[in-house]
């Protein structure tokens, strides 16, 4: 447990600086990997993948996180689907350019970013090796619990909300994107 906390804190430190190979450790199984760029690897970075969705790009820009997602450090993004984004309250979308909103949106986004590249197969293996669940740390330092839900993986936040990983993972030059069906609330 001490190793997990130390590893998670080190990864968060690197992630908050936007430098290094901030690897995440999925539970005690250590199933996460840091993907090295190899020939034939995706040419788009995470910022470009996020930029393909105007609503998500708007949130990333408001939080000032574009440089982080365009950087070298690998990240795993849990990106809410458009249906999930539609469920956000109007206050989230109104006044995105206001300084008071920046902290709220940054916290929300950091709760959806994991240091390191964690593929679906890594998560599934960690859940299996962990006796049905594993814990991963977000860039915000909050733990998320991953379990199996039928053929899918379910991610639960500390506030009781949970999301299913849906669709196919999208590898990027500096990480991977997993679409989720619910926005995971930021801890207040």
Automatic annotation (TrEMBL):
Q: Residues of the signal sequence?
A: 1-20
Which Gene3D superfamilies does the protein's record reference?
FAS1 domain
Give every FAS1 domain span. Answer: 43-184
What name does UniProt use for this protein? Fasciclin domain-containing protein
Recorded hits in InterPro entries, A to Z, give: Adhesion/Biosynth-related, FAS1_dom_sf, FAS1_domain
**Keyword Plastid listed:** no
Which PROSITE patterns does this entry report, sorted A to Z? FAS1, PROKAR_LIPOPROTEIN
The organism's superkingdom is given as Bacteria
Record keywords: Signal
């Amino acid at each position: 447990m001490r190793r997990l906390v130390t590893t998670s804190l080190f990864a968060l430190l690197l992630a908050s600086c936007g430098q290094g190979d901030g690897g995440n450790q999925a539970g005690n199984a250590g199933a996460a990997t840091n993907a090295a760029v190899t020939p034939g690897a995706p040419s788009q970075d995470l910022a470009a993948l996020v930029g393909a969705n105007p609503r998500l790009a708007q949130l990333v820009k408001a939080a000032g996180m574009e440089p982080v997602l365009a950087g070298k450090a690998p990240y795993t993004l849990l990106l809410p689907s458009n249906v999930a984004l539609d469920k956000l309250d109007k206050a989230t979308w109104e006044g995105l350019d206001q300084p008071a909103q920046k902290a709220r949106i940054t916290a929300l986004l950091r709760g959806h970013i994991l240091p390191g590249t964690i593929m679906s197969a890594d998560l599934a293996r960690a859940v299996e090796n962990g006796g049905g669940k594993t814990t991963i740390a977000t860039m915000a330092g909050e733990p998320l619990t991953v379990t199996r839900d039928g053929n899918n993986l379910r991610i639960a936040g500390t506030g009781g909300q949970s999301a299913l990983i849906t669709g196919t993972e999208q590898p990027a030059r500096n990480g991977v994107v997993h679409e989720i069906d619910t926005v995971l609330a930021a801890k207040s």
